Amino acid sequence: MSGGEPTRLVDEVTAGPSGAMTREGVILTGTLTVATTELPAKRAQVTLREAGSSEWHTLAGSPFPVPPEGIGALHTIVVAAIGAGSRPSG
Prior knowledge:
Elements lengths: L7 E7 L5 E2 L5 E2 L2 E9 L3 E8 L6 E2 L5 E2 L5 H14 L6
Antiparallel strand pairs: 1-4, 2-3, 4-5, 5-6, 5-7
């Protein structure tokens, strides 16, 4: 993270068969908006919300370590894992 606003990447994905588990214990399904936001110390917070909702939830396991490839790589991994219905490792 370099001065100014933290990097924030946002995409939509259709959750896989098991949905996406939130830190709050809610399973989100259907079309989800996924946001990965850079934090200090090479970590990133992943939040998501269901289509049509204004309520953001934190993905279970978040914050995640940012890999050497950067926050874009982490975001790609998380979006793919949600689409497959699995939990990102981190």
